[in-house]
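SEQUENCE-TO-STRUCTURE ENTRY
===========================

Subject: a protein chain together with a token-level encoding of how that chain folds.

Sequence line: the amino acid chain in single-letter code, read from start to end.

Question of interest: how does this chain fold, as expressed in backbone structure tokens?
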Amino acid sequence: MGSIIKFSGGDREFEGYLSEASDPGPGVIVFQEWWGLVDHIKDVCDRFAAEGITALAPDLYFGEATTEPTRAGELMMALNISETAEVVGSAIQHLLNSSKLESSKVGVVGFCMGGQLAVYCAANDDRIGASVNFYGIHPKVQPSYRGLSGPMLGIFAEHDEYGNPEAVRALSEELTLLEKPHHFETYPGTKHAFFNDDRPEVYNEHAAKDAWQRTIAFLKENL
């Protein structure tokens, strides 16, 4: 359904995968896992478009992607966070300028590394009206949640070596203390990255379907 596009960032040009809904409606920025802008993320964008939500996944690795965990970890740790914010900011503006958007704000949805980056951007850009964090993790990214201007939906796995239940509970308590609206779902019996249907060793069909339905409803309600 979608295609790779170029979008402007001042004197720079970036790339991303854009999948447009057939009719005007909400829009969302999709943040990749540490693998890069792989087919799974493109498919997620297409699925959003089929639900009436135009989706753009910026290429945060500038053309590189991998299936090797060691290389994925290297790419994640080498990520320049300020540059990433620049890419995402330009992607947001590209969506807001689109005739496919009816909202004055966009949503952000991220997975693993992308979940943490999505929340980071949501806390630093008031053009973001809602965020969905799928088991977000990035050791170099520590968002200041005081800046969140919209609600957060958190999707977590019960058995996650990166974001254990204690960490999820602590995040919920912090958001409550800051009076930031949020709703967290932790799926029993699941592992980190359970939403990724290209990884049969961790994919959980039941949990993934429920999390997807919650994500669509959340975005349509809040954008």
Notes: The helical segments are 39-50, 69-78, 81-96, 113-122, 165-177, 205-222. Residues 98 and 128 are 15 Å apart (CA to CA). The radius of gyration is 16 Å.
